């Protein structure tokens, strides 16, 4: 067998053009290649492959020209573990905590909290108006936790025998519509789809009687095991563009009422 010997310089000229297309194809927004997305079941954010989290992640990936290899849902804790270990690239609807910031890049895209739901006929314009009623009946779901101020109020109402306990979200909303309770606390991700499904949006007023209550930030989560800081920042900046150009609002509006979208986008992402 005769071996073909080429001068080193000529060999380099032959190899570099062949390798260049591979280098050129690397995408700085997804340097590890096609993405694996880890969701968890959370109201209209994600359920059975659909929700605003799905639409958001797919739109970001489309804009950044990053193909998606796989999408799956897990229990909440397992989804976080997949991201921590680098077995998944991206998650969504993730709360920011110091522990999670250790292994995730977290970029908020909505801010929400429990609102006060009142029957449409209620004349209460403030929390004080509600509490003045001697016949007040306030509904709450067994075992559910709210903000500290809201939970203190419910504890006081329980001592006054003005608290009515519901077994589930469905139970609570039906009691509200049937006049068995005069008020309730609930989150838009829960009450919006329920009232829409039961064609009851026009029967309920949504009020913010706890303006100082802590909001919960839902964030897109990028695994630090998969994204370097510069790559993650590309996603962050694209998310901000979606907020500014109205795409984020349009996605949320597919699943939530105009009032709820106004509330959860009230705090700017800038």
UniProtKB/TrEMBL annotation:
It comes from the Bacteria. Gene3D superfamilies: Periplasmic binding protein-like II (3.40.190.10). InterPro entries: Solute-binding_3/MltF_N (IPR001638). Keywords: Signal. Residues 1-26 form the signal peptide. It holds the Pfam family SBP_bac_3. The keyword Signal applies. Residues 34-259 form the Solute-binding protein family 3/N-terminal domain. This is Solute-binding protein family 3/N-terminal domain-containing protein.
């Amino acid at each position: 067998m005769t071996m073909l010997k080429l001068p080193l310089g000529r060999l380099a000229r032959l190899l570099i053009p062949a390798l260049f297309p591979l280098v050129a194809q690397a995408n700085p927004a997804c340097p590890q290649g096609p993405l694996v997305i880890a969701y968890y079941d959370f109201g209209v954010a994600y359920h059975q492959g659909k929700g605003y989290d799905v639409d958001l992640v797919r739109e970001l990936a489309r804009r950044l020209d990053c193909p998606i290899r796989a999408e799956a849902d897990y229990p909440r804790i397992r989804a976080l573990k997949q991201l921590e270990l680098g077995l998944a690239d991206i998650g969504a609807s993730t709360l920011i905590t110091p522990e999670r910031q250790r292994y995730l890049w977290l970029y908020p895209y909505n801010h929400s909290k429990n609102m006060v739901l009142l029957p449409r006929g209620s004349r209460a314009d403030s929390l004080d108006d509600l509490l003045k009623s001697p016949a007040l009946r306030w509904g709450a779901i067994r075992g559910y936790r709210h903000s500290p101020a809201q939970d203190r109020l419910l504890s006081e109402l329980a001592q006054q025998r003005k608290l009515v306990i519901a077994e589930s979200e469905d139970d609570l909303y039906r009691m509200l519509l049937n006049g068995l309770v005069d008020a309730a606390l609930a989150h838009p991700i829960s009450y919006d789809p329920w009232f829409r499904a039961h064609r009851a949006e026009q029967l309920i007023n949504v009020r913010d009687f706890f303006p100082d209550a802590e909001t919960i930030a839902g964030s897109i989560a990028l695994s630090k095991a998969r994204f370097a800081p510069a790559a993650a920042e590309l996603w962050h900046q694209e998310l901000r563009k979606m907020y500014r150009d109205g795409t984020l609002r349009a996605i949320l509006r597919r699943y939530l009422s105009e009032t709820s979208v106004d509330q959860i986008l009230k705090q700017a992402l800038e």
